[in-house]
From TrEMBL:
Protein keywords: Metal-binding
UniProt cross-references to PANTHER family, sorted A to Z: GTP CYCLOHYDROLASE 1 TYPE 2 HOMOLOG, NGG1 INTERACTING FACTOR 3
First and last residue of the signal peptide: none
Example of a GO cellular component annotation carried by this entry: cytoplasm
Pfam family, one: DUF34_NIF3
Protein name: GTP cyclohydrolase 1 type 2 homolog
Binding sites annotated in the UniProt record for a divalent metal cation: 81-82, 121, 250, 254
Sequence similarity: Belongs to the GTP cyclohydrolase I type 2/NIF3 family.
A single MF term (Gene Ontology): metal ion binding
Annotated SUPFAM superfamilies: NIF3 (NGG1p interacting factor 3)-like (SSF102705)
Amino acid sequence: MLANELYNRLDEDFDIKNIRDDWSFMDFNSYIVPTFKSKYMGLILDNSHNIEKVYTATFPDKEIIERILDTNAFDLLLFSHHAMGYRGNAEGFPFYNIPLAYLEEMKKRRISFYMLHAPLDRNGEYSTSVSLAKALNLEVVDEFCQYDNIKVGVICKTSFKSVLDFSDHVGKVIGHDIKLRNYGEADIRNGKIAIAAGGGSYPFVATELADLGINVYLTGFTKPLQYFEPTMEFHKIVKDNQINVIGATHYSTEKYACISMVDYFEKLGICAAFLEGKYFLEDL
C-alpha cells in the first residue's frame, strides 16, 4: 500500500485533526517530520514510499526496534501507542527518546513510524480501555474519564461478585502479577467495574468513580509517587471513598489495543503483526 494513503487513512479513521495531545518533552531532531512537532500525533518518521508490512507495539522501545531491524526487511511501518520508549524501573521520568542511531538505521531500511496516543485512548472499536474490557470478557455499558474533550474510560458489567475473584481473573488474563489495593468492601457493587487503561491514577478519575458509586477500578499505573502529587491525591480519594484499585501495569493494560490494530491493518489488506513488549511491576 502506498505509505501516504495509509497515513491519510489512519489520520481520518482516528480523527486526529479534532484531538489534542502533548509530546513537547520529546527530543525533536531532524528525523522527525515537521507536522508531528506541532500536532504530537500521527506520522513521526516518513521513511517509506510503500508499506509492505506493519508492526504494532505499545511502546517503541529499543528492543522492539531491534527486533524489526533484525528482520532485515525494508518498507515497513512501526505503529505504536506511544512516541517514546518506556522503562518503568527507571528513577524519575520513565519515558526515553529513541536513540539517533536507531532513527538513522530506520531511515536506511525505509521503516516509517506512526503513533496514536490520545486518539487510540479515545473510546472506540480499537481503543485501549475497550480492548482491555474485551480481553477480560466484560460488557461495556457506559463510559467515563473525560480529558481534552475525549472519554477514555469504560464502565463494565461483570458476573463476578467478589473483588478478589475479579482481581484473580484479571491476573490470569494479563498473565503476570498484578496488585489489588483493598480500600473498600469485598463485594462488587451493583455488578459494575470501571476501567481506564494505562496511567489512570488521577484525582479527577477517583472523584468521578466516587460520584458514580463504583467500588472497583482497574488501571495500569497505580504506584503512589511522593514527587508527583496527583498520584498521592488519587490514593487519598479512593481510600476515603472505599474504592478498590487493581493495578495491572501501564504496558499490559494498553497492549490489547495494539493487538487489535493488527486486525485494523489486515482489513486494509496489509500484513501486520504485534510485537510483545515488556511490562514493569514497578508501575504498581
